[in-house]
Design brief:
Elements (H helix, E strand, L loop, with lengths): L1 H7 L6 E5 L10 H11 L3 E5 L2 H7 L6 E2 L3 H8 L6 H13 L5 E4 L5 E5 L2 E5 L12 H16 L2 H16 L7 H14 L3
Parallel strand pairs: 1-2, 2-3
Antiparallel strand pairs: 4-5, 5-6
Length: 191
């Protein structure tokens, strides 16, 4: 109830990230109530779920959803490995209500599908030390990049660098590591 009260007092200037699984005592259905309360204020939502919880969130037109290619395939009962088919199914998620879809593909980079186009971030080289929090870091980096510049391509690169910085670190990636990886990613893509 306390959380519902906080979410109900937001404004259209706010963005709330909903991620992960709810406690088993509540079940993931609680997200519908929380997301509905958030969207009723005009605030945007980002949903980093998988399976039915992700599907259920689409009715609220989340600003961003971020399944990986395996989770995306599971939703549609297919195995997704090639970029064209991953893009095709990501567009289905857009059609079902998401404003933007990032498909993370671990060592194969990331794909952003939005109404304005499709963007690809090549994989970043590094030794994975920790996968915990890498997806959350990617979402945070994407949002920071998008709200700073309004540029989806840059936002995807910053998100990819942020996720990589955490994956290649013990703990959350540092600002310095993110900047280093962003340079590597930008140079790799010839920009």
């Amino acid at each position: 109830q306390e959380l519902l009260s906080i979410l109900s007092s937001l404004t259209a200037d706010d963005v709330v990230v909903f991620a992960g699984s709810a406690p088993s005592s509540l079940g993931n259905a609680v997200y519908k109530q929380l997301i509905a309360a958030t969207r009723a204020t005009g605030a945007q939502v980002v949903c980093d779920f998988e399976g039915q919880t992700l599907i259920d969130s689409l009715e609220f037109n989340p600003q961003l959803v971020k399944p990986n290619n395996h989770e995306l395939g599971d939703i549609f009962g297919v195995t997704l490995t090639e970029l064209p088919e991953i893009e095709r199914y990501a567009k289905e998620i857009l059609a079902k209500g998401a404003q933007n879809v990032i498909i993370s593909m671990a060592g194969d980079g990331a794909l952003l599908v939005s109404p304005s186009g499709t963007y690809f971030a090549k994989p970043i080289k590094g030794q994975v030390k920790n996968s915990v929090g890498a997806g959350d870091s990617m979402v945070a980096g994407f949002l920071a990049g998008y709200f700073k510049t309004g540029d989806y391509g840059y936002a995807l690169k910053l998100g990819t660098a942020s996720g990589g910085a955490t994956a290649f670190s013990h703990g959350i990636g540092s600002r310095e590591k993110i900047i280093e990886l962003l340079k590597q990613l930008t140079e790799k893509q010839g920009e």
